[in-house]
Amino acid sequence: MKEIDINTPSVTSKIHCGEGVLDKVLPKVLSGRHIFTITDSNVNRLYGEFIAQKLAPHGEVHVIPAGEKSKNYTCLARILKHMLHSGLKRCDTVVALGGGVVGDIAGLAASLYMRGVHLVQVPTTLLAQVDSSVGGKTAIDFCGVKNIVGTFYQPETVIVDPLFLSTLPAREIRCGLGEIIKYGGLSASILEKLEKNTKNLSSEIFLKDITYDCISHKADVVTRDERESGLRKTLNLGHTTGHAFELYYKRKSHGEYVLIGMYYELFIAVERGICPPEYAKRLLSLIKRVVSVPAYADADRACAAAAYDKKNVGGGEISIIVPVCPGKAAELRLGADEYSALIMQCARSLAEEKQ
Ligand code: ADP
Ligand code: ZN
Q: Which of the four pLDDT bands, split at 50, 70 and 90, describes residue 311?
């Protein structure tokens, strides 16, 4: 069992990570508190007994339908209404038990209700454990734009227990691996570990170990730049193009699109002479271990969506994060036309490779 702290000017967020932390830490965290649990229909079905025994006796349980479609305004309003009607007070605690969707919407509700109540995150997917439950970003999708309405709101406690991974489908493991490989483009030690374990990336033992490394990396970045004015932007590696593809093609999981986005963006980084080809090759081969990268014939159309990404700076410029050398990534801004041309060049080179 390990502990990691995120210290921001206003709050300390404590992350407990490892086998058995749920049993050990949760009772202490909840002792004497009135809580409002938010979970989704799948997690409620799979972990109903746990919820009934360990969470429900401390307060209310609100179940949202599973899936990204719940990350909307109506669902948020329903949660807030239930919080109000159940008499939740300023000193009470919201517990988010679920994947990234539950974490994002429950975090937003906790930050809004009475201008903020205590928040405990218990992430149950690999993606939420390695990435989204840590760092205090909350959001819903709005008017077709992903994560466009949200807040920065640090959870007091995050409990990351690998026991939840035993029920996760392979697709969700691959989704989490997408973010884990992203960290390989940001941390030299994570990259080395990934390369040493290319044959057992999905194994339980490896995932337990690498989860801690990814959280540590993120905690360090968030401590230094909570509001994403500089360094934290690097955590968006693969996401500008990945989000655009995700929005347009909609077939694969978020993590897979992050990897596909990272592949296309690495191509741009090499073309622009920012990333040495030998280093890019190491990252590309890891990406290909987890996902097959499509040669999208209409990639430029998909990428027009990137212009709506909130990370972009306006004035027609697209911002992407590019790996520079092991352990270092930087922001690159490109004109929309140049970006689109390079994306198409990558798609064509992928198509040639496949012939
Ligand atoms: P993500 O965590 O990938 O951002 P979701 O929160 O939508 O996205 O979770 C992905 C799917 O996995 C959802 O259908 C959710 O209900 C389901 N899920 C969450 N945790 C578990 C778990 N421990 N075992 C099985 N399925 C789970
Ligand atoms: Zn992501």
A: low
